[in-house]
């Protein structure tokens, strides 16, 4: 199903339709402030496994990332030092993925690496979904280096490609092609491990 949602003013009725699908373990493709991504209720392990399978990711060897609604949510799912909190406060919402030690709240699938990526994108659609769901959304970019760019930026072409894999594709306008900047905050000597969109403010 392809659902049009306007990022400036996401309609509650459409948001709730998507939230219902997420609650039932559905997979959803949505816009962020960087690239389009595929996600599910982060607490639904079966849905998380399904996305890992689609993307060819081994959760035992890779960090998984979740989208939170705001900074106050993060401490539920990750251990945040004062230094990390100050840095995130200056840069979020924004195009960054911060790697932090996981907390006990997350299901076991996140604990193999003992780290989790945290995102708070500057995009009202995905943040409203997370807010209404009441759980974070596990997220992975659909961008593929060997793909034709339109298949990861044009919502109608994304739908054409993924309609059999995702329950809902949200048309929130054209997506970007530059991924988030990844910042390792597992120690207070933080480092940028991948420079993507956005310049970190210190």
Task: Annotate the secondary structure layout.
Blueprint: E1 2-4, H1 12-23, E2 28-30, E3 37-41, H2 45-55, E4 64-67, H3 71-77, H4 82-91, E5 96-101, E6 115-119, H5 124-133, E7 137-141, H6 150-153, H7 155-162, E8 168-171, E9 181-184, E10 191-194
Overall description:
With 202 residues, the protein is an alpha/beta fold. It has one domain: DHBP synthase (Alpha-Beta Complex), CATH 3.90.870.10. It contains 7 helices and 10 strands. Strands 1-8-2-3-7-4-6-5-9-10 form a 10-stranded mixed β-sheet, sandwiched between helices. The longest helix is centred in the first third of the chain and has 12 residues, at 12-23. It is globular and about 45 Å long.
Record the strand order, biggest sheet: 1-8-2-3-7-4-6-5-9-10
Can you give the mean pLDDT? 94
What is the number of beta strands?
10
Helix content: 25-40%
CATH architecture: Alpha-Beta Complex
Computed CA radius of gyration, to the nearest angstrom = 16 Å
Q: Can you say what the CATH homologous superfamily is?
A: DHBP synthase
Distance between the termini: 41 Å
Order of SSEs, N→C?
EHEEHEHHEEHEHHEEE
Question: Helix count, per DSSP?
Answer: 7
Question: In a few lines, what is going on in this structure?
Answer:
The chain is an alpha/beta fold.
């Amino acid at each position: 199903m392809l659902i049009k949602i306007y990022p400036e003013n996401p309609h509650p009725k459409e948001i709730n339709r998507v939230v219902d699908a997420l609650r039932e373990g559905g997979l959803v493709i949505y816009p962020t402030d960087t690239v389009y991504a595929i996600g599910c209720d982060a607490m639904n392990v079966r849905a998380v496994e399904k996305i890992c399978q689609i993307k060819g990711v081994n959760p035992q060897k890779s960090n998984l990332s979740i989208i939170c609604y705001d900074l106050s949510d993060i401490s539920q799912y990750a251990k945040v030092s004062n230094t990390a909190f100050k840095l995130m406060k200056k840069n979020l919402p924004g195009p960054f993925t911060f790697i932090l030690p996981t907390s006990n709240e997350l299901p076991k699938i996140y604990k193999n690496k003992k780290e989790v990526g945290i995102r708070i994108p500057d995009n009202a659609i995905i943040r409203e979904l997370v807010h209404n769901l009441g759980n974070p959304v596990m997220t992975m970019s659909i961008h593929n280096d060997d793909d034709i760019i339109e298949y990861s930026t044009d919502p109608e072409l994304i739908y054409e490609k993924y309609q059999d894999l995702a329950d809902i594709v949200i048309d929130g306008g054209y997506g970007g092609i530059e991924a988030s900047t990844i910042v390792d905050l597992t120690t207070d000597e933080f480092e940028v491990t991948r420079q993507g969109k956005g310049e970190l403010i210190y």
